[in-house]
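Table S2 (text version). Query chain:
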Amino acid sequence: MTRYLLLGDGTVFSGKALGAATSTVGEVVFNTGMTGYQEILSDPSYAGQIVLLTYPLIGNYGINDDDFESDRIQPSGLIIREAEPVPSNWRSTKSLDQLLKERGVAAVQGLDTRAITKHIRSAGVTMGAIADDLDLARRVLAETKGYGEIDYVEAVSTQAPYRWGAEGKLLPEDPDETGRVRLAVIDCGLKFNILRRFYRAGCSPKIFPSNVTADEILDWRPDGILLSPGPGDPARLGGVVKTVQKLLGTKPMFGICLGNQILCHAMGGETFKLKFGHRGSNHPVKDLETGKVTITSQNHGYAVDPNSLPDTVKVTQLNLNDGTVEGISVPEARAKSIQYHPEAAPGPWDSRPYFREFVAEMRAG
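Corresponding structure-token output:
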């Protein structure tokens, strides 16, 4: 069956149906990673977006039960060049098409993904719709708010606190394991691998909804605070920013991706929307203090404006592709953050030491 992709500027691409027999709408973005489609599909930072994967063959190693990064499919839709119908991997339990059908997610294959990527790279990200009927695509696109007008964090954050242990989610009242430091996580769109890495580094994480208050965090007596990644425009997160402002200086604080932008806003800084964002597994980042270059996994559409930051904030890392801010620190508040994903999933492991380093800071008080 023919399925269409309609971009916000009226450009139409036609391909073949994949996944659920439904229509969908979202901001169309591209990711340049060669692997990791399952992790991408379950990454909450992609909420409200239709993801185009630039690598031409997707689904060849199937879907397994271990590599999900959240409890549901997060993007609105998926665009690929070719889907492998019969995956080959001993861990696979189903095909990509089966997963999309089970979860009710519309996708399209058989399009010229290189042409679409070049279009977005030149014109910038845009809203788009996937549908089997062009008139339907035009209608749902016209009726949908722009990506930046919606608070997606509220939709992807946990609704109730929970703990994390060796086997995954625990009840909020479950006791700490002996010898572990307490990490309070403000969930704005958390990936499970962040919790896995912190647990393995010696933490006992407790995850709180994005609307948690500073008092609720401090009443738990954490040794440190994590500001998680997540979707959408950080300028819309005034409530979270106010909570972070109250928490600054009380405990060591670390932000990842959206957490970096939230820390920026909490310090009085501003962010801006990138033309087509950073989404992939090979972005070089330079640490300005050590001179070390790290290859990083990234997924964000907004960046910190360095000129908006007060003198109390230090820019610590830069993206070598476009010079945007990749890390900041607030020494007097014992707070720091990075714009990329040290947990990878997918991506390189170069920046995994950040988990051990932050745990050491938490232990030092």
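Notes on Table S2: The chain has a mean pLDDT of 97. The chain has two domains: 2-149, 153-364.
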